[in-house]
Design a protein that fits this description.
This protein is of the alpha+beta class. About 35% of the residues lie in helices and about 15% in strands. The strands form 6 sheets. It has a 7-stranded antiparallel sheet. A 7-stranded antiparallel sheet has the order 7-4-3-11-10-2-23. Strands 18-19-20 form a 3-stranded mixed sheet. The longest helix is centred in the middle third of the chain and has 21 residues. Bound molecules: glycine (GLY).
Length: about 575
């Protein structure tokens, strides 16, 4: 599969990033299948995105002197066409921006909102029991107000300098002339054909004449081109108060089942400027997106808990994975109880990252065996204003896309973008899919008489796992990364940071490292990799293990060891590409 998509750039031997080489690392852990990893070396600007055409559009903008924000707009516009199952104008995103002039990080929240008519029982049957996941996902009920059009315009207004309309030209040309359906998109359509076929407009595009799109087929999307032309000409306004807003409402209310979105929901939508969450780790500052995302909090808790103990052994040692897995389980327990939209519930974010609290959590991990389930309960962080929440019961399946960019001016951008489930709600409007982000809320609103923090409420933003990350050293960015993957995003990102900051791996090695994750007790090991050999040692420590595909899409940019340029790497598990010059 990669052969089709790789090849624009030389694939170079893996460099090491960080202070030390990794002699202690066995080949299967320390060396990525380099020929399979799209990596570019020592460039002055760089973009890593989930499809070569999207990366190319971004790299062209950077080559013409555009900023990382300009490039992001071009990348997102192309991704909405060639990777429509993962993100687009019908979805939402979180964006981190490092501003070279001020040295500041800004985080923008372009997350979807629940309609004003939504109630905590949105995903419940009349008797209060939760709906089945796909019964809730497919159709209008799951659609929140899209944030991506507003986020693109806001990012460009703040940090763009290229002509706005010109940023959409590559995507418009591809939509009008056609692009080649990628193997990954074709496989996703084939898997989802029945659900796609349940919505008539969607069926016509993805399953024409009852046949799922085939890999290599030339696909045009004139409706999407027209939407982009409107966005190019008039900005995001038509999406929130104009003709497109009317069509979105009509599609959601006319879908089967119908949703609650109304014109006022779109008209009052705003991108929010949130405070970045940063914490120290191994001499670096790890910065990410706070609530309504659980990403930076959970990644921060995992790393902060690990930092309380001795140095991690090398990745060949099962004890390294035991500690990483148990730190992750502890973070997921807190996430399930406390994290939701902080405009609606008090999230004890400060207390959850306090060193004393993390030290107490790390104390639970002392000893060589797996933590027993009763030890992995939510803690009681300070600044906790509500001790009485029940644990969240949202289900997040892998989806989403991540964009990492650095520009020639020293700015850095890390953005994770989504329509939630693959193909979102399956409802299509004007050439793009609408999200099903509302199913990131807990389907249950209460458990045993206690409220759940991440319950649905009007205007509220569903909790996310997206973890766009920028790592600083002495105030300047050295790593820009993130991944898709539902709630697995959190350990994908945390483990990649450990690979680079503890084990000294370079970006290509780090993104290709076999995955071993533990969110809820069972260790998930990546099928067909060296991770499988860890099954017996982990079982001996008391873990249940499950072997299967773990489809991350890690996109990493790292500063070269001499500090003069950038290295970029795209996850070999998907179709992404790193491009720079
Ligand atoms: N819907 C994926 C996420 O927000 O984490």
């Amino acid at each position: 599969m990669r052969g089709l998509w790789a090849g624009l750039l030389a694939l170079l031997a893996t460099p090491l990033w960080g202070q030390q080489a990794t002699d202690a690392v066995a080949p299967e852990w320390g060396q990525a299948p380099v020929a399979d990893v799209a990596q570019v070396q020592a460039a002055q600007y760089m973009v890593v995105a989930a499809h070569p055409l999207a990366a190319q559009a971004g790299a062209d903008v950077l080559a013409q002197g555009g900023t990382a924000a300009d490039a992001m707009v071009a990348v997102q516009a192309v991704l909405g066409l060639v990777e429509p199952q993962s993100s687009g104008l019908g979805g939402g995103a979180f964006l981190l921006w490092f501003d070279a002039a001020s040295g500041q990080i800004t985080t923008l929240d372009g997350r979807e909102t629940a309609p004003l008519a939504a109630t905590p029982r949105l995903f419940q049957h009349p008797d209060g029991t939760p709906m089945g996941f796909f019964d809730a996902v497919v159709g209008g009920r799951s659609v929140g107000v899209p944030g991506t059009p507003a986020l693109l315009t806001e990012a460009h207004r703040r940090w763009g300098q290229a002509d706005w309309a010109g940023l959409f030209q590559p995507a418009i040309a591809l939509a009008e002339d056609g692009f080649s359906v990628s193997p990954r998109l074709a496989a996703a359509v084939a898997r989802d054909a029945a659900r796609l076929a349940s919505q008539p407009g969607t069926a016509r595009y993805f399953v024409p004449d009852g046949q799922p799109l085939a890999a290599g087929a030339r696909l045009k999307n004139p409706d999407y081109a027209a939407s982009l032309r409107l966005l190019a000409r008039e900005g995001a306004a038509p999406f929130y108060t104009g003709t497109i807003a009317r069509d979105i409402v009509a599609a959601v209310q006319g879908a089967s089942p119908a949703g609650l979105l109304a014109p006022l929901d779109l008209a009052i939508y705003r991108v929010k400027d949130r405070s970045p969450l940063c914490l120290p780790y191994r001499g670096h500052e790890i910065c990410g997106m706070g609530p309504p995302s659980s990403g930076a909090l959970a990644v921060g808790q995992i790393l902060g808990t690990l930092a309380q103990g001795p140095a991690l052994p090398p990745p060949t040692d099962v004890q390294a994975w035991r500690r990483m897995g148990d730190a992750s389980r502890l973070a997921f327990a807190d996430r399930g109880r406390y994290v939701a939209d902080s405009d609606f519930v008090p999230v004890p974010a400060q207390g959850m990252l306090e060193p004393a609290y993390l030290q107490a959590r790390a104390g639970l991990m002392v000893g060589p065996q797996a933590l027993a389930p009763e030890q992995v309960q939510p803690g009681q962080p300070r600044f906790q204003h509500s001790l009485n929440w029940a644990d969240d019961q949202a289900l997040e399946l892998p989806s989403t896309t991540h964009i990492s960019i650095v520009d020639g001016y020293g700015n850095a951008l890390s953005m994770t973008s989504t329509i939630e489930n693959g193909f979102g709600s399956r409802v299509m409007v004007r050439g793009y899919l609408l999200n099903n982000e509302l199913t990131d809320f807990s389907f249950r609103s209460h458990q045993d008489g206690r409220a759940i923090a991440n319950a649905v409420a009007p205007g509220k933003r569903p909790r996310s796992s997206m973890a766009p990350t920028i790592v600083l050293r002495q105030g300047v960015p050295v790593l820009i990364l993130g991944s898709p993957g539902g709630s697995r995003i959190i350990p994908f990102v945390a483990n990649t940071l450990v690979a680079m900051l503890d084990w000294g791996m370079g970006p290509a090695q780090a993104v290709a490292m076999p995955h071993m994750l533990n969110r809820f007790g069972t260790f998930e090991l990546e099928q067909g990799t060296a991770a499988e050999a860890m099954a017996a040692p982990l079982q001996a420590l008391g873990y249940e293990v499950k072997i299967g595909p773990l489809n991350s899409g890690l996109h990493v940019i790292s500063r070269t060891p001499d500090g003069t340029g950038w290295l970029g790497a795209a996850d070999p598990r998907r179709e992404g590409q790193a491009m720079g010059r």
